[in-house]
Amino acid sequence: MSDVTTPAGTVSPTDGRHRVTFRRLVPDPVDEVWSAVTESDRLGRWFGTYTGTGRVGGTVRLVMVAEDPDGPPSTVAILECVPPERLVVEVGPAEEAEPWRITVTLSPDDGGTLLVFDQLVPEGMTPADIGPGWHFYLDRLAASLTGAPLPPWEDYEGLGGLYA
């Protein structure tokens, strides 16, 4: 099996900013994990649903299911999509904010899948601002794949110190 970081992931400096990276090993095959990350109904089980046709150069409208399912959708631009290995998207921007560039890479690993999630921390934010949320969502992904109960946000609220 590949070297996998703790569930909290790692924070590393990048060009005067920070990058948050999670490496998670899940027992499911790559195609299953890819479906859970890219198909609206499967994505909706742990993160959010989208409308529109996902394709490179296109956009979809994403509604987060765990935060505010009645809130306004976010625009997600698909920058790169290499099924079932790599997805690069930009989420946002919200009011004058920098878009969130997110990269998900999947690779087979001893019968399961190594998922690498990476985000450059937007200017004006810290790793503590985004780390607990992605920790929460990636745990929800793992639970959705196994059929386990989804973890509650309250278990993650105080984890900002892990990303300091």
Q: Residue share in helices?
A: 10-25%
- Morphology: globular
Question: Helices and strands: which structural class?
Answer: alpha+beta
Order of helices and strands: EEHHEEEEEEH
Strand order of the largest sheet: 1-2-8-7-6-5-4-3
- Measured distance between first and last alpha carbons: 28 Å
Question: What's the quick description here?
Answer:
The chain has 164 residues and is α+β, with helices and mostly antiparallel strands.
Strand and helix map with partners:
Blueprint: E1 10-14, E2 17-26, H1 30-38, H2 40-43, E3 48-51, E4 59-64, E5 74-82, E6 86-91, E7 100-109, E8 112-120, H3 127-146
Antiparallel strand pairs: 1-2, 2-8, 3-4, 4-5, 5-6, 6-7, 7-8
Description:
The chain has a single domain, classed as START domain (Alpha-D-Glucose-1,6-Bisphosphate, Chain A, domain 4), CATH 3.30.530. 20% of the residues lie in helices and 36% in strands. It has an eight-stranded antiparallel sheet. Residues 1-5 have low confidence and may be disordered. It is of the alpha+beta class and 164 residues long. It is built from three helices and eight strands.
List keywords for this structure.
single chain; 164 residues; alpha+beta; Alpha-D-Glucose-1,6-Bisphosphate, Chain A, domain 4; 8-stranded antiparallel beta sheet; 3 helices; disordered N terminus
